[in-house]
Amino acid sequence: MPRRSVMFTPGDRPEMLRKAPSAGADVIVFDLEDAVAPDSKAEAREEVREVLADPDFAPDCEVCVRVNPTGITADDDLRGVLGNGDQARDAAETLDSVMLPKTEDPADAETLADLLDERDAEVPILALVETAGGILSAENIAEVPEVDALVFGAEDLAADLGATRTDEGTEVLHAREHVVLSASAGGVDAIDTVYTDIEDTEGLREETAFAIELGYDGKMAIHPAQVAPINESFTPAPERVEWAEKILDAKEAADAEGRGVFRVDGEMIDAPLIAQAERVLEYAEAAGEN
């Protein structure tokens, strides 16, 4: 399933956790890191576990938990959410993925994978790269088998670099491009950074369109109101869907004839364009357009 929109919800707000699926995001992230004050971490773990274990909580989207950076706190997070007991076991069945913030190198992701394995939680890792070290190691991080996506964090990166954030984003553009290249090389999803002005819908649409041009598969959201504009931006236009359907129909005929290259409306079609067509239809299906 595509990860067009990845929406964060504070882990210590149970009423918001339960309402999160109604926003329509492809991925909802129960946040135990930045959105939760240090003194509230233990309470947040309990709240997240209770919501995940509730049999009435059955969202039609990917459910992710953002733990704290690898180390003692991340272990505490997993123990709190996926510890012993029937409730924790039920929570584990609802959990679809785990996000690791401030992933600096492959060892960080491997450590989290080991912690998940200790708790028999076979879920993928979304590795958030948001430091200079993480950006430079992005390609190697993407090669860790348990990593299923690279997530670009521009705000933390700018703070790490001492850079000044601008509307144009040129100060993080190289890193933004490096992440999507690394994700593509590793065969994992690339999720773009947040847009911090929740009232600027037009600006969000423009930045999401640019992320799509760069090759990103989805974008993070920090408010439910951002989900629809992001999803709409990733929804292929009808003519694009028609193009993809023609290509895959022609591919089926070409396969039957043993041809690897074929022509559609005067355009020569090979493996890269076939992959593009498949991606277009996947996103159209997610949007209910096909």
Mean pLDDT reading: 93
**CATH superfamily (homologous) name of the largest domain:** Phosphoenolpyruvate-binding domains
Tell me roughly what share of residues is in helical segments: 40-55%
**Class inferred from helices and paired strands:** alpha/beta
CATH architecture of the largest domain: Alpha-Beta Barrel
Task: Tell me about this structure.
With 290 residues, this protein is an alpha/beta fold. It has an 8-stranded parallel barrel, surrounded by 4 helices. A two-stranded antiparallel sheet has the order 9-10. A hairpin with a 2-residue loop joins strand 9 and strand 10. Helix 12 packs across helix 13. It contains 13 helices and 10 strands. Helices cover 50% and strands 16% of the residues.
Topology:
Blueprint: E1 5-10, H1 14-19, E2 27-31, H2 41-53, E3 62-66, H3 72-82, H4 86-94, E4 97-100, H5 106-118, E5 125-129, H6 132-136, H7 138-142, E6 147-152, H8 154-161, H9 170-186, E7 189-192, H10 201-214, E8 218-221, H11 227-233, H12 238-257, E9 262-264, E10 267-269, H13 271-286
Parallel strand pairs: 1-2, 1-8, 2-3, 3-4, 4-5, 5-6, 6-7, 7-8
Antiparallel strand pairs: 9-10
Helix pairs in contact: 2-3, 2-4, 12-13
Brief rundown of the structure:
This protein is of the alpha/beta class.
